[in-house]
Amino acid sequence: MTNTAESGVTRGNGALKLHLGCGHLVVDGWVNVDYAVGARLAQIPLFRPLNRRFRWFDRDWDDRIFIHNLVKPFPWKSGSASCVYSSHTLEHLSRAEGQGFLRECHRVLQPGGLVRIVVPDLAFWVSEYVSGRLPADEFVEKIGVLYGQSRQALKTRLLPFIQFPHKCLYDQAALLGALRRIGFTVAIRKPFESDIEDVRSLEIDERTEGAVIVEGRRDGGDPRAT
Question: How far, rounded to the nearest angstrom, does the alpha carbon of residue 108 sit from its chain's CA centroid?
């Protein structure tokens, strides 16, 4: 496996399409990027068949994933991408790390390029709790700030290394503000409503429930946006 910064991408007009924090969803025509332990181990020959047998990880990680730590500067050239898609990734970064991540998205996008960010909506989950629809003892679990649980003792010990609770929470105003501060022209979007043509190959319906979706354009953009 050759893990290069342009692996798995259809070049077309020469602009990259970056799928950052892709998880198990590897989409043709995009550079699918993740840094999960399972994704890194999948680069090792024979790991995937062994994992299918012993189930060390629940996911069968794809060895086509490009491995990169998203809190570090991106390996792509400035202005080299036409669009960036990232779902349920930004909230796993601290506020400072998240700002660095968004700055890098802005840097690698060409003028007019698009970024689409999907994160859990704190306001939604607070509303669910306040209305009584979400019991108090489930609220912290729903906002993702705790480690999960496993029936296997080994997995329980490894949770701090394989799970990454949420470090920063957003509502609509917070996410819009975060992208505006970087220099994006921004707008709230509905699920699957996008200027990214093949967004339906990336967006998972259940991941849009109780979520904020913001699309930003570098250097100009949508007349509906502010």
Answer: 16
